[in-house]
Amino acid sequence: MQIHQYIIQQTQISEKSIKNTLSLLGDDATIPFIARYRKEMTGNLDEVEIGKIVKFKEVYEGLEKRKKAILKALEEQDVLTQELTSKINNTNNITALEDLYLPFKKKRKTKAETARSQGLEPLAKMMMSQLVNDLEYTASKYTSKEVETIEDALEGARFIMAEWINERTDIRNNIRYQIERFAQISCKVISTKKEDEKAQKFKDYFEWSETLNRIPSHRLLAILRAEKEGFIRVKLQIDTEITLQKMEDRIIRSNNECVGQIQLAIQDAYKRLLFPSLSNEALSKAKEKADDEAIQVFTKNLKQLLLGAPLGEKRVLAIDPGFRSGCKIVCLNTQGELKHNETVFPHAPQNKSFDAIKKISSLAEAHQIEAIAIGNGTASRETEQLIQKIQFKNPIDVFVVSEAGASIYSASKIARDEFPNYDVTVRGAVSIGRRLQDPLAELVKIDAKSIGVGQYQHDVDQTKLKKSLDSTVESCVNTVGVNINTASLSLLSYVSGIGPKLAENIVKYRNENGSFSSRSEIKKVPRLGGKAFEQAAGFLRVKNGKNPLDDSGVHPESYAVVDKIAKDLKMKVASLIGNKEVLQKINIKNYISETVGLPTLQDIIKELEKPGVDPRAKAKVFSFDKNIKTISDLRIGQLLPGIVNNITNFGCFVDIGIKESGLIHVSNLSDTFVKDVNAIVSLQQQIVAKVLEVDVVRKRIQLALIN
């Protein structure tokens, strides 16, 4: 089967779209570029559909690589037949492929191998044929110095038969089916760990059992983590009696002396070989599925966070609050550059609130501050209340900003390179302020796993997770577009076709030659060739450049089309941009050509109407309930303002202004059944929640969404 046929089976995407997408991928085109600028070739596929093609392309290539390795191994063993070659080549499932290879796989010294070396395979074949009537006499012929008794001979033959049974594909598939449909996963606490303090968060699973195919991904990952940390034992169970009977029905065809021996071999094969192997396989597949779901949740959350509402180019005073160590204050200009920093001590034990108010007030005036960003960590509420007491000369909006990952950034090489002369506390405060100005530009500097919006992110497949998160960051960066004259190295490295090395070269060129005046000037950057320019140009923005199209999502390859439209209208391109009335009257079908189709023309008109418009919403001011400072202040029935700070498959977590986040379980999100939590709430959404339950000891808060 060819690769495009395999992908069609998995995705149901048209053959033409798949072939063209594979061709573009083969030319090193990126997913954002293909989705945005090659719609005619792909049949208007979006990033998700192209991502599926990429995924199954990799699966197919992995399968083909494994087939070659197996065929080579079988050839070396001189056991490769035409029939076996055909079966292997026609297999499109990795499990079925490994089953075909299983009988020939080199094994460590097994009981069956030992029995074969003792000359017992002919006896096993006779017993398996079920034609032997005088078993004791037949077995006696195979006794020897190594095989002292008839029972030893029968036992050795059973080991060989058990291995044959283990290698039967039909038997393996039947047990797989039983496990897939009916297996129960059960947990039991290890008695010596029951009172362990760290074990208490897994208390719900000290005695637990449910069907494997119904277990939610978050629960399976929690159970497996508890097992890994040594607090519980986990096992799978199916009805052994029914399974053994099904095996006997497939194998036993007579009613002579061999039957009892075959039954013993079946039991041995099942308990020693089949069930341990296939239950591990099932658990591994369930874990893989749970990983995929958890990664999907993480990527959805990350996308919402990265595309969070920016305040924009405003002058910001940012505060990283603290008690004993004080509050670190920085003043940033509209471009996020650090203009001033110092520390005030308004809270206990120093309690110099008057001095702090005076200092913050004077800094706000001196730097013409337009907004204040307060980190949401320790002393956040107290600092927010302090700020609200200040009578500023001009109105200043106050925002509480998530600190998640700020400490990771402040200690990173990126932060040290940006601020070599400042310590981690200053860098952390700068990061808080910049997150308010532009969450995307700042968050790309931090390892996505450290941002705190995942679900068991340390338990899932780390390679898959990184790949998915990197792809999400790349998608978000290219969706928004990047100002090439102000973007950091981190931000530039996620632009389609650029990467870390070219991003370094761009920043170096910019530092040495000043701002870029046009997109075409980017070609002067060392090692940035035609391919990289093609992939990147449409996502890079040049503000106030020579060509107004350089600050739009129109790709340079389409500039000639825009010039022709403007010429036909007897207008300048600059006059055409933003002129919705004129643009809507254009018959774009007149401009269809061999290289430019309707989807591209529609995108061009849409972009000309609102060139370079940021697709993100604008930041909104928000205030928590001033009376709620700790979990002890909560009362059942209270209505509280909150911000959604994490979304999982089982609900969402809400910041209500205290150390502990509250959980709105999926059942409390709506009066009707909720299939997808993201359909009800989004990350950073401002909501009102009702307190349902408060567990002060376990620090758990149950909430309900008020619609």
Number of helices: 29
The residue ranges in which pLDDT falls below 50 over 5 or more consecutive positions are none
Secondary structure category = alpha/beta
What is the distance, rounded to the nearest whole angstrom, between the alpha carbons of the first and last residues?
A: 52 Å
Shape: globular
Give, in spatial order, the strands making up the sheet with the most strands.
6-5-4-7-8
Mean pLDDT, as a whole number?
94
- Tally of extended strands? 15
Helix content: 40-55%
Task: Describe it.
The structure is a single chain. Helix 11 runs parallel beside helix 15 (258-306). The longest helix has 49 residues, at 258-306. The mean pLDDT is 94. A hairpin with a 5-residue loop joins strand 5 and strand 6 (338-344). The strands form four sheets. This protein has a five-stranded mixed β-sheet with strand order 6-5-4-7-8, sandwiched between helices. With 707 residues, the chain is α/β, with parallel strands linked by helices. The two termini are 52 Å apart. The chain is built from 29 helices and 15 strands. 47% of the residues lie in helices and 12% in strands.
